[in-house]
Design goal:
Elements: H1 3-10, H2 47-54, H3 58-68, H4 81-96, E1 100-101, E2 108-117, E3 124-129, E4 132-136, E5 141-142, E6 144-147, E7 150-154, E8 159-168, H5 178-181, E9 185-188, H6 198-217, E10 222-226, E11 240-242, H7 251-256, E12 262-265, H8 268-278, E13 288-293, E14 297-310, E15 321-327, E16 332-333, E17 342-343, H9 346-363, E18 373-379, H10 387-394, E19 403-409, E20 416-417, E21 420-421, E22 425-428, H11 436-447, E23 450-452, H12 457-460, H13 468-473, E24 477-481, H14 501-520, H15 535-546
Parallel strand pairs: 8-9, 9-10, 10-12, 15-18, 15-19, 19-24, 22-23
Antiparallel strand pairs: 1-14, 2-11, 2-14, 3-4, 3-13, 5-12, 6-7, 8-13, 14-18, 16-17, 20-21, 22-24
Bound molecules: zinc ion.
Length: about 550
């Protein structure tokens, strides 16, 4: 296998549109609405149920979140010590609530993966542009570029080039031919997406990806981008996670990621050389580049979902399940605004995480348990591309065919939505893809919360959070949110002090009511077959239940 193929096989997958949290990079597509498949059953709560939900308290939510989103947990990156501490805390709360451990290791479901570290160990880069030769120091390169937690390009290695021809071009030069590019190192100046306005980010990313994919098609060996803004590189960049079961990125992940290795050089002399080369006609350039980049280093790492069950009371239905979930990871510690480098992720998705914990505690006080069992679950790795929920979809802890619904919670703490305040309301993604949206709306009527379908975002965000993995298996699965976009989204300022705990209490009581309605109803939610967007999930449901 040649170097190029080995390299592209190892390229990091880009999580861009996968994460819910990628809304800044996601386009909002307008889609026609279809009528909801509204249930006609009259919904009520018993006094016991109302009392249990009444135990959900703003103080308790604030208490949990002030720890989960504290600087001590260092932004709960996947993997990290902060993430492990959060997992222990969640498990401790499940233990306190008396939930049944359902993981493969008590309350934990451990995925034994690898951390992949790009390797600058014996890095060597030399630009030979007669009469000058320039050696690029390790401290002056970046092997990856990330924005809002997502890798936009990278070079993972191994890659060895001996005096490969160099072609210096303007960004977006469309005049190139395969003859000019094949086997060459392309020197160019990509825009720094980290300096881009948020509104333009997705567009700029797509333009850059198109340009890089074109160079890949023309069989360039490597792209070297000149950065004049930052005097220092990020070196190996953020590590990535590797699931040994999925060494090859999926077709969708490949389609989203840049298909050619890119290295940034942050060096003024190199930039000067680039300017000089660019002024020459391509055929006049005698410049060559020599590169040695080692293969990345893999370190074993264990990352964990956390799960506990509140066992139901019906002799038959207690072996069926409703999942209430949230992701407990966030972006970790990285360069932010000013001195603060901790991305606390209080709203995203500390708010969902502590909601799961608080609801488990509240419902465990029920004197009469619901008919079905309720699984409380916290996922790792959402920010890295829905990793924990995807892992769960492949390794379910309770049978998928007996899992009747999933209600996933994302960004339920802040009410300062970019579209205006969202008080006493919550949106459901894929609202009318299944009956779950209508059940949650009924729960909203019982608890005084407006549960709605956002005209554009409900459908556009369906695939961006941890409901997607279960939906793919056929389980009616949705995400509920208070704010889709808000100030401090994926920024260091997403802190626990900015959450509206009274509103969060109200919304969580509604979620609890919805979960109880599903768990108490012998009739399970169904996908809405009259909605073409739900067709593939309805089909998956049929396949799941044929087993
Ligand atoms: Zn999130």
């Amino acid at each position: 296998m040649n170097q190029r193929k080995r390299l592209t096989g190892r390229l990091a997958t880009v999580a861009l549109i996968f994460a819910f949290c990628a809304s800044a990079l996601g386009a909002n597509f307008f889609v026609p609405q279809t009528p909801a498949n509204v249930s006609t059953r009259k919904a009520t709560l018993t006094a016991d149920e109302s009392a249990a939900l009444g135990r959900i308290s703003a103080d308790s939510l604030r208490g949990h979140l002030s720890f989960i989103a504290s600087d001590a947990l260092e932004g709960r990156d996947t993997p990290s010590r902060g993430l492990d501490l959060a997992a222990e805390y969640i498990a401790a709360q499940f233990r306190r609530a008396g939930l049944e451990p359902v993981g493969d290791d008590n309350y934990f479901q451990a995925a034994n993966w690898s951390r992949v570290e790009r390797n600058l160990g014996s890095f060597k880069m030399e630009l030979d542009a007669p009469p000058r030769a320039l050696r690029v120091e390790r401290s002056k390169v970046s092997l990856a570029s990330s924005v809002s937690g997502f890798t936009v390009w990278s070079a993972d290695g191994p890659l060895t080039l001996e005096r490969a021809g160099v072609l210096a071009i303007d960004y977006k030069d469309a005049s190139l031919t395969r003859e000019q590019v094949e086997g060459k190192v392309v020197l160019t100046e990509l825009p720094d997406l980290r300096r881009q306005e948020r509104e333009r980010l997705f567009e700029s990313y797509q333009a850059q990806k198109k340009f890089l994919d074109r160079l890949s098609e023309l069989k360039a060996a490597l792209v070297v981008t000149v950065d004049r803004n930052n005097p220092k590189g990020v070196g190996a960049g953020v590590e990535r996670l590797l699931d040994p079961e999925n060494r090859q990125p999926s077709a969708r992940a490949r389609a989203m990621s840049v298909s050619i290795p890119v290295i940034a050089v942050h060096d003024t002399e190199f930039a000067t050389e680039f300017d000089a080369l660019k002024s020459l006609k391509p055929e006049a350039s005698k410049a060559t580049l020599t590169l040695h980049l080692d293969a990345p280093i893999e370190h074993p790492v264990s990352v964990r979902n956390v799960a506990g069950v509140l066992r139901g009371s019906d002799p038959l239905l207690k072996d069926t399940y409703v999942i209430v979930s949230a992701h407990y990871d966030h972006l970790g510690v990285r360069d932010g605004d000013g001195g603060d480098r901790v991305f606390n992720g209080a709203n995203d998705d500390g708010s969902g995480t502590v909601s799961v914990v608080e609801l488990a505690a509240a419902l465990s006080t029920l004197k009469q348990r619901p008919k079905r069992s309720i699984v409380f679950m916290a996922f790792f790795g959402e920010e890295k591309g829905l990793l924990g929920s995807r892992y769960y979809g492949r390794h379910p802890l309770v049978p998928l065919a007996r899992t009747v619904a999933q209600v996933n919670l994302e960004q339920v703490g802040r009410t300062d939505d970019s579209e205006g305040p969202q008080v006493g309301s919550a949106a459901v993604t894929g609202f009318d893809y299944s009956d779950v949206g209508a059940v949650l709306r009924e729960a909203g009527e019982l608890t005084g919360v407006k549960v709605y379908k956002h005209p554009t975002k409900s459908d556009a965000f369906f695939g961006r959070s941890d409901n997607q993995a279960l939906a793919d298996t056929g389980v009616p699965a949705h995400t509920l949110s208070v704010a889709f976009e808000y100030p401090d989204y994926h920024a260091v300022g997403d802190e626990w002090q900015k959450v509206d705990y009274n509103n969060m209490t109200k919304v969580l009581r509604m979620v609890g009511a919805g979960v109880l309605l599903i768990a108490g109803n012998p009739q399970e939610p169904k996908w809405n077959e009259s909605n073409p967007k739900a067709a593939r999930y309805a089909q998956a449901w049929k396949e799941l239940h044929r087993q």
